[in-house]
Amino acid sequence: MSKIFVKTPQQPKKEYPIIIDKNLLQKSGELIQSSTKAKKLLIVTNSTVEKLYLNKLEDSLKNLFEYDCLILEDGEEYKNISSLEKIWTKAIDIKLERKDAIVALGGGVIGDITGFAAASYLRGVDFIQIPTTLLAQVDSSVGGKVAINHQNGKNLMGAFYQPKIVIADTDTLNTLPEREIKTGLSEIIKYAFIEKTCNHNTNFDLLNFLQINSENIKNLNHQTIQKLIAICCELKACVVNQDETEKGLRAILNFGHTIAHSIEKCTNYTIFTHGEAVAMGLKGAFEISLKKHLISQDYFDTAINLLNEYNLMYKIPQNIPAEDLYNAMFSDKKVENKHIRFILATSKAEVKMFDDIEKNIILETLKSLK
Question: Active site includes 145?
Fold first, then answer.
């Protein structure tokens, strides 16, 4: 078992655990009980995860909690105000009180919507994260960024609201389709190229770890995957501890995401998974870094070789105009003073924020990705 604790500047005397291991769903009831004083739980999941894991979670809750469930539709396109209202309505219907808790059982979409509901219902009830995808276990379940999408942009309405515990059962990865594994790998690869900028006191050398363990990772070897998730969580927890509400350093976690979010918006969140868009965004960020002479050709080749090693797709469809993608970037929440902000690679495992990238370079990069 791996256990990592997340501390936040707003509540320096409090911390919450991220627990990573196999067979954790069967123990979830006891783990939740150790982290909250709630007597009643509202479990929020989607139609796909319900069939696979809801019964296991319910079995662990018996004799420990009163609980009810809400099943949402599966997909990024349902990360919206309608789904949020369904959670609020269900919480009201079951008379969930301020001392109670809302549990997210699922991937990043479920975690984000449920966390926003927990942050806003009765001005805040306890929030429990049980991520079931690789993407959620390495990234979105940690750090307390919760949100919903708007037709004009991704994650435009949200809050910073930390969970009481994150329970990452690696057994849930065994039922993920290959596409969802690759979705998580994009975020993992992101961490390899921002590691030094995270300012962690341990040198994990995640880039090398990914290079030499690719077969074990692709085969979901338990020990390798558990260590990989733990490294990513350590790095994110370190960043969150320094900058919980994204006033500065935390923006580095958006490496590759400026282009990714514009792709998602231009395709109405229905064509690509978030990780697929991030892979395209990472390729684009490295292209811009190279064009701006921030990195060497050798480092660029190292990055692209790693994307290729994990068979990640980074081609943008020809039918999406580069100008549309560029315009969509102005709806991104990172825009400041009408400047698009990019996180770009500057040296091995280091990145920096730039808000002065010329339009022609952005358009050239977007066209080169087609």
Answer: yes
